[in-house]
Design goal:
The chain is of the alpha/beta class and 211 residues long. The protein is built from four helices and seven strands; from the N terminus they run βαβββαβαβαβ. A seven-stranded mixed sheet has the order 4-3-2-1-5-6-7. α3 (156-169) packs parallel to α4. The longest helix has 15 residues, at 25-39. The chain is globular, with a radius of gyration of 16 Å. 46% of the residues are buried.
């Protein structure tokens, strides 16, 4: 068994102060960092994803419905797209970016970012470096012989759910560490947890992970 930890979209725009803040976003950022300090040896690889929008079409709206359309968020290379400062990337092996020109909720829609990418953004917002690699998350996991994945991050009811369901659909044994996630809304979060369990995903606590 080769296990990966997939950390989804722990970005400033999804934390308090951002346009799509989840209530526990900053807390989750710190909790994931603490978890990695004590449990990184439980994983063969650790991967992160980032929402990374340039012109995502109807995904952005001035009058969003907050289900399929949203306020502007996570523009490529903007401070809002950067990882939250309480999320320590010391143990991260690879980063995947998604949603440049369309809505993309699942990390499996992302592409591998260059190793020298500036996570906190020093370029013009909305600009994508030309040397971005065309390696998908699924391809990368297969190259590293991953069989099992744990999913954490933001937001439970959208990108965490989509990533976890795509993982199990791709054949990975999948768990969601629910205490290391935070949702947009209580109702949709509960629906997401039920949907994930119905898909055969184990919804559990990070305390169940061995060291």
């Amino acid at each position: 068994m080769t296990r990966a930890l997939l950390i989804v979209d722990v970005q400033n725009d999804f934390c308090p102060g951002g346009p799509l803040a989840t209530s526990r976003g900053a807390e989750v950022a710190a909790d994931i960092s603490a978890f990695l300090q004590t449990h990184h040896a439980a994983y063969d690889v650790v991967v992160t994803t980032q929402d990374w929008h340039i012109e995502p079409g109807t995904h952005f709206s001035e009058n969003p419905d907050f289900r399929e359309s949203w306020p502007v968020h996570c523009l490529a290379n903007s401070p809002g797209a950067a990882f939250h400062p309480d999320f320590d990337t010391e143990f991260v092996d690879a980063m995947f970016r998604k949603g440049e020109y369309e809505a993309a909720y699942s990390g499996f829609e992302g592409l591998l970012a260059p190793e020298d990418s500036v996570m906190t953004g020093e370029h013009e917002p909305g600009h994508m470096p030309e040397d971005t690699l065309k390696v998908s998350l699924d391809d990368w996991l297969q190259e590293h012989d991953v069989t099992d994945v744990d999913v954490a991050g933001l937001a439970t009811d959208y990108c965490v759910k989509a990533t976890a369901i795509d993982a199990t659909d791709a054949g990975y044994e999948t768990r969601v560490l629910v205490d290391l996630t935070s949702g947009v809304a209580e109702e949709t979060t509960q629906e997401a947890l039920e949907d994930m369990e119905d898909a055969g995903i184990e919804v559990t606590e990070s305390t169940t992970v061995g060291r």
